[in-house]
Here is the input.
Amino acid sequence: MIKENISNVNEKIISECNRDKIDPDSVHLIAVSKTKPLEMLKEAYDAGVRDFGENKVQEIVDKFDKMPSDTRFHMIGHLQTNKVKYIADKVYMIHSVDSYKLAAQIDKYAKNCNRIIPILIEVNIADEESKFGIAPSECIDFVKSISTFSNIKISGLMTVAPFTENPESNRAYFRQMKQLSVDITNENIDNVFMNVLSMGMTGDYIVAVSEGATYVRVGTGIFGKRNYDI
Ligand SMILES: *Cc1c(COP(=O)(O)O)cnc(C)c1O
Here is the structure.
């Protein structure tokens, strides 16, 4: 089942790329495995997936050692500064940087384990009360403020678009994300790269791809519904 779901998602991504004349190699699928047991991650791995998204520090710690060493864990959930130390040596990329304090802490622990951690700025693109992230109007200043840290690599932007039954209603937000990344690129800030755009989930990843996503984060569409009670 997982294998079929993955090929299904990959096929949809490729056909959208063909339609929009986007290089399919520029779009990467992250299988969002939060709450899911190791066996399911291994099944996805066997189907070719190497990128997994988790939103809890504890789950990354638990799963990290049990997956093959070329597995890449992406931290996509809200990250508390006091927990950075547990994942600094494990996580491939942190998508959810939304404060100076958090960036400083990631820089510190990246230094401790002698690496440069790629990070994305989380943007609250629809200005939703319930969402984490930097307001679009504050992004450039925020990026500038954290650009001097030597052990983080600012690699792009991430957003969680509004929940919707109609993916088309998020197109404008995805387009604004792309424009924001272009605007930041045009600032020519040292140590700032905008090659990653992490956006699109099960309900709207096709629209996100057509608006320039380079990472789509698909959970339910691969692993089925999540049960938060267990
Ligand atoms: C859970 C989650 C996803 C995946 O959501 P689905 O709708 O199950 O595809 C993507 N991104 C983030 C940040 C998440 O927390």
Q: What stands out?
A: Residues 75 and 202 are 18 Å apart (CA to CA).
